[in-house]
Each structure stands twice: as structure tokens, then as C-alpha cells.
Amino acid sequence: MEENPKLYYDTNEVAAMVGCEPSALRFWEKKFPQLSPKRDSRNRRRYNDRDIEVIKKIMHQKEKQGRTIKGAREQLRRKEESQLLIQRLVRVRKFLVEIKDQL
């Protein structure tokens, strides 16, 4: 485990971490709304751990699943929607259990 984990990484660090070109990261930022690195005062991109996970998912969709950019974007969107639906259902279930316990 790292002693001093970083909160933000620059484009070159992330590209080296995931094994792609920095230009691919900049391109994907335009194509995937899920990928939105922050900008610092000098307008440089700063990626956090969530952004890096999105990049890994994009790479997996493209390289392992053989999807196009459009297909990968659609798959990520559907996955996000299903996760939101699961969260809502968990909240509804919790609410119903509370009502049942009160009866």
C-alpha cells in the first residue's frame, strides 16, 4: 500500500499507468461524458481515481470486448443507469422493510 497516495494525476502519469497515449485520453474526454478530469490553475488536466477507473473501463470495452467508441460509450451509459436503478431499489426495499417492521 502506498504511504502517500496522490489525489490527482496529470495526463502523462495516467497514460503510463493504463498503457495508452496521452492523446487518447484527451480524445476520450470529448467522447465520454463520464470522463471529466478537473483543470488546475494552469488549465492542465488532473485525473482522480474515479477518472482512472473510467479510463480502464473504456480500454476494456475497446480492447477486450472489441467495441467501437460509440458502443463503449453506450455500454458505460447503460451500466451507470443500471447502478442507479439498483441504488433506488435498495432504498425502496429499505423503506418497505421499515414500514413492515412498524406494522
Automatic annotation (TrEMBL):
Domain HTH merR-type span(s) in chain numbering: 8-78
Signal sequence extent: none
A Gene Ontology molecular function term of the record: DNA binding
Keywords for the protein's UniProt record, in alphabetical order: DNA-binding
Classification via PROSITE patterns: HTH_MERR_2
Protein name listed in UniProt: DNA-binding transcriptional MerR regulator
